[in-house]
């Protein structure tokens, strides 16, 4: 029997990412540098455009 993880809550991820980035005063460039994710990916996550 295969057990799959639950679907991610993308709305919660988007809101939490935006909140934490804002709280720390980080730009997308700073978060990209620290996370290893592309700046464009982070913008798309926060703005949901790639996930709707």
TrEMBL record:
HTH cro/C1-type domain: residues covered: 17-47
Gene Ontology molecular function, alphabetical: DNA binding
InterPro entries, alphabetized: Cro/C1-type_HTH (IPR001387), Lambda_DNA-bd_dom_sf (IPR010982)
CDD domains: HTH_XRE (cd00093)
Database matches in SUPFAM superfamilies: lambda repressor-like DNA-binding domains
Domain of life: Bacteria
Name recorded for this polypeptide: HTH cro/C1-type domain-containing protein
Native source species: Streptomyces wuyuanensis
